[in-house]
TrEMBL record:
Descriptive protein name: Uncharacterized protein
Annotated organism of origin: Stomoxys calcitrans (Stable fly)
Domain of life assignment: Eukaryota
Compositional bias (Acidic residues): 10-23
Name of the encoding gene: 106082552
Region annotation Disordered: where it falls in the sequence: 1-26
Length: 100
């Protein structure tokens, strides 16, 4: 059996809308104002965001990312040391990223 389909007439409009879409500043879930402020720090600094994401993935803990972004209780320093441990041993690591 052969099935054929034709694309919707408004496909081009949908794709154009998706390309222009930017972050609205809204977050899903039950996040308090402190957590949102911490996340916004990472949005402003891509290097910091990548390090905090790597740390959250390696530690497998769901609260590490916002705490790293906001440097709550020196979590950012912990993450830097944890993520770049092997590079530091070889003497090639640079300073931990800071929020701008």
């Amino acid at each position: 059996m052969l099935v054929t389909a034709r694309p919707a007439d408004d496909t081009e409009d949908i794709m154009a809308d998706e390309e222009e879409e930017e972050h609205s500043g809204e977050y899903h879930g039950r996040l308090n104002a402190t957590t949102i402020a911490q996340l916004q720090v990472c949005e402003a600094n891509v290097e910091l965001m990548e390090m905090c994401m790597r740390c959250a993935k390696l530690t497998k803990h769901n609260t590490v990312y916002p705490q790293c972004c906001g440097n709550f209780d020196k979590v950012r320093e912990f993450c830097y040391n944890y993520v770049y441990y092997r590079q530091e041993r070889g003497g090639t690591a640079t300073e931990a990223p800071t929020s701008k």
